[in-house]
Design a protein that fits this description.
heterodimer, A: 316 residues, mainly alpha, 2 domains, 16 helices, globular, B: 469 residues, alpha+beta, Rossmann fold, Dna Ligase, domain 1, five-stranded mixed β-sheet, 14 helices, 24% strand
Chain lengths: 316, 469
């Protein structure tokens, strides 16, 4: 397959996955911001997605102060924010457009329709459309696209690069969401270490719901969510589709069947990551310090992404 | 100005022509509301499918839909076979002309066409001189633009031998009609066209001496106005859609960059002009081409479809000689007529043109897309004066033709159904054999009275039916 094509397919699915993940972040933060707060009108919560995606400074630079509605709009629909959900969807659609000869008509029509619809939503404004409805809509569009992809495209390298983009992005996102929620918890919870509190319950369950893992959690642990089991579920369970382990598993499998010898550095890297997760336990991770461990892993994923780039996407 | 138009659907007495009867019955029976709803559906489907084009000169590069009209343009098969034979004859002669022009130049020596007419032409490529092409084919994909005059006779308006576009609309319009109105296709036999991509791939493969050549479609990129079509054809044929930067030349061989390392390229169906193909040989500023491509081409290691230098044969100043070419190379009488043409480079013809500007259509010899032309009867006095000055300054750059009363076809417009002018572009494929799928692209000028059908000038398209009579 053409390297440029592979690159466009990879980025198409990365951007779409990113848009979906951002909608998931937004959904948690928005719902938590409506919980009874200690006098901040939930602004910290609403600022969280911007913090996670590293766009808070950009926002403050443009709009000065924290303002709930403006932050939400900046994050979701601002066309002048290069990493808004709107911009991510636009980038995914532009990549799809560049390779529309290599994806099926169902896939193209689906992503093109999403793009046309979000432009309509942007014209209406988030307030009128409804925040939760928007997040639901975006997740649904992403599900639909994935369904169209699985249901129609040939199982060839195009399919593999699409999935590769999805899982790299998803792994990164799961790590960042867990890290952010854990930081938020530790600020408050360190002194009380009060996993039983209602507040903590809502924090963890919102995270699980954002990652569509709430049902999995209750089935596996049959207990109220708390830091240790949530981290275990989201990092080490291979059977939870948005967990880190599930993602590296997929990436490892995909890279091992891509043709050519160019890919060896990337293949080695992911095999090492996969082994690291396979042969560790949650206690070992917590001992190292969850935050430190997560950040080290985020860096590994970034390096893996770079290795994939040099191996396949910019081959000379 | 009174002109009699040939209407495709109604005869001069207002009776529905036999090959439109089934359709007319259906149209009368179908409730207006249903039609309106289907038309909206068509718009939505085209939009969703992103079947759009980009308008040049539009700063935002907005993607637009080409308006699609649900009333088909229908041609009885008996009439079509004549058109088809005529197009094939014409393209065969044009290919022979190009081969001759770049080799022995018999036609010039025989005095049929003046040397300066072709050799001094900007589109004449010295690099092609003496180069032997497989099967001697230069224009593998040709679009022949046809119109009907008042009495129903088909005329060839121009030949397109560079990178003729529009075939994707021909195919998508048919798909849309079958999706929206399946009942129409069971009521009468419309000859199929869906196998065009198959024939195209076969044509491209047969343009190479190799058994199973690796074929690619080369696009200038997604900002090109016809990008949709490039991607569409690559997908339909199951071949790679490449940009210049995806390829490189090593030892006079062409390769594409893939995830599995370099892969050879044998046939390039290129959808960009000669000038952009190779920055080393042509326009040095072009970022769209592949350095060294011409050298690989001249070494015979890659096929370009169409060949370099075909533009000299579809130039409007060469157009008047095509009928002579048919007689010269094929020893046949031309089946399709040429529109009478005044060549402004000849002083006596120029003075005739200048004296009759308000009645004529004046075209740039190298223009296309409906840009830079004057439609005398529809022009204002200022426009005519501007053209008069231009003609005097550069007479060799223009030709003039009588204003044809292009045939009309009933078309949905804001006020209901009204006749609008149309043309027809069948696509001729030249490989092992020369073939045409039954039909072509019908373009329709949506503005009342307008004779300009180009999509860049507000034209739309219709499905084109060849129906068995």
């Amino acid at each position: 397959m053409l390297s440029r094509t592979a690159s466009d397919l990879y980025w198409m699915s990365r951007y779409l996955e990113r848009a979906e993940n951002m909608a998931r972040m937004l959904d948690v933060s928005y719902s938590l911001s409506m919980m009874p707060q200690d006098g901040r009108d939930g602004l910290d919560e609403i600022a969280m997605p911007l913090l996670i995606t590293g766009t808070l400074e950009d926002y403050l630079g443009r709009h000065g102060q924290m303002h709930a509605e403006r932050m939400l709009d900046f994050f979701a629909l601002a066309a002048d924010n290069p990493v808004s959900i709107y911009s991510c969807l636009g980038a995914a659609r532009a990549s799809a457009h560049a390779v529309r000869g290599r994806i099926t008509a169902d896939m193209w029509e689906n992503i093109n329709a999403s793009w046309l619809e979000i432009r309509g939503i942007a014209q209406q404004g988030l307030n009128r459309y409804g925040m939760s409805r928007f997040c639901e809509w975006l997740k649904e569009r992403s599900h639909l696209f994935r369904g169209a992809t699985y249901g129609t495209i040939m199982r060839n390298d195009a399919f593999r690069f699409i999935r590769l983009g999805t899982f790299i992005e998803r792994a990164d996102n799961t790590l960042r969401l867990l890290d952010a929620r854990y930081e938020m918890m530790s600020i408050k919870a360190l002194d009380s270490v009060d996993d039983e509190s209602a507040w903590s319950y809502y924090q963890w369950s919102a995270l699980l719901r954002a990652l569509s893992s709430f049902e999995a959690y209750t089935e596996v642990y049959r207990d109220a969510p708390a830091a240790r089991p949530v981290a275990e579920l989201l990092l080490l369970r291979a059977d939870v589709p948005r967990s880190l382990r599930a993602c590296t598993d997929e990436i490892n499998r995909i890279l091992s069947v891509l043709p050519g010898i160019n890919g060896r550095p990337a293949q080695r890297r992911v095999a090492e990551m996969d082994a690291r997760l396979r042969y560790t336990g949650i206690d070992e991770i917590l001992e190292a310090g969850l935050h430190e461990w997560l950040n080290a892993f985020i860096a590994s994923i970034r390096e893996l992404g770079a290795a994939i780039h040099t191996s396949y996407l910019e081959v000379v | 100005m009174s002109q009699i138009f040939f209407d495709e659907m109604y005869d001069p007495n207002g009776q529905v022509r036999p090959h439109y009867r089934e359709f007319a019955r259906w149209l009368a029976e179908t409730p207006e509301e249903t039609l309106a709803q289907r038309r909206r559906e068509a718009d939505l489907l085209f939009h969703r499918a992103g079947i759009t084009f980009t308008l040049y000169g539009d700063e935002q590069g907005t993607e637009r839909l080409i308006p699609f009209d649900i009333i088909p343009r229908s041609i009885p098969a008996s009439e079509w076979w004549v058109v088809e034979k005529g197009c094939i004859q014409r393209v065969k002669a044009l290919n022979l002309f190009l081969a001759d022009l770049y080799h022995d130049q018999r036609i010039i020596k025989a005095g049929v066409i003046p040397a300066d007419q072709v050799l001094a032409n900007e589109q004449y490529q010295l690099a092609m001189q003496g180069l032997d092409l497989h099967r001697g084919i230069y224009s593998h994909i040709s679009g022949v633009d046809l119109v009907r005059d008042g009495d129903g006779t088909f005329y060839v308006l121009e030949d397109n031998l560079r990178t003729p576009s529009g075939v994707s609309y021909m195919l998508e319009d048919r798909k849309m009609m079958m999706r929206l109105f399946p009942e129409l296709f069971s009521a009468q036999r419309v000859l199929p066209i869906d196998h065009y991509p198959n024939l195209l791939l076969d044509t491209l493969k047969s343009s190479s001496p190799l058994d199973n050549p690796s074929v690619v479609v080369m696009t200038p990129g997604r900002f090109n106005s016809a990008y949709f079509e490039h991607a569409f054809l690559a997908r339909e044929m199951g071949v790679e859609l490449v940009e210049g930067a995806d390829m490189f030349v090593r030892d006079d061989k062409v390769f594409m960059r893939t995830t599995d390392g370099p892969q050879p390229v044998d046939v390039i169906y290129r959808r960009l002009d000669d000038a952009f193909l190779d920055p080393l040989a042509f326009n040095p500023d072009s970022m769209l081409g592949v350095p060294g491509l011409l050298s690989a081409y001249r070494a015979g290691n890659v096929v370009l479809a169409n060949a370099i230098g075909t533009g000299v044969a579809d130039d409007k100043s060469v157009y008047p000689f095509v009928t002579d070419m048919i007689r010269f190379y094929l020893d046949e009488e031309p089946i399709l007529k040429n529109v009478p043409t005044w060549q402004c480079r000849k002083p006596e013809e120029l003075s005739h043109v200048l004296a009759h500007l308000p009645e004529l259509v004046v075209k740039e010899t190298q223009g296309s897309g409906g840009y830079g032309m004057l439609v005398g009867p529809a022009a204002t006095r200022e426009e005519i004066d501007t053209f008069r000055a231009r003609l005097k300054a550069k007479p060799h750059a223009y030709i003039a033709q009588p204003t044809l009363s292009l045939s009309t076809c009933p078309t949905f417009v804001e006020s209901g159904i009204a006749p609008r002018h149309i043309d027809l572009r069948p696509f001729v494929l030249s490989g092992r054999e020369t073939r045409v799928v039954p039909g072509g692209l019908t373009r329709v000028a949506l503005r009342e009275g307008s004779l300009v059908v180009n999509s860049s000038q507000g034209g739309g398209t219709k499905d084109t039916w060849v129906v068995e009579d």
